[in-house]
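Q: Could you fold this chain for me?
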Amino acid sequence: MALSTHQQKHIETWQESGLTQVAYCRHCKLNSKTFSNWLRFYRSEQVATTTPTLIPVEIKSIASSSGTLCLRCPQGHALELPAGVSPQWLGELLRCLD
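A: Sure. Below is the predicted structure, expressed as structure tokens.
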């Protein structure tokens, strides 16, 4: 089932409105449960059509006496992890943060 242009327009208008779903539906005389179903489908379509992106990573070998691994992004955020963290777990974490 694909959403109609009418349904997509309602979702986009609601997102820009600043109203709650219930208030928007009341204002537009829409069934809030039906609107919620449209929104759930709309969001699942958005996720399905999103292509994965790669995150540039620069690896620097710096000796650490603390036994921790520190990941820093260009925006200044830092994440400190135990040095023995599983590479598979770290890879999954980075995929989730994307």
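A (continued): Residues 52-98 form one domain.
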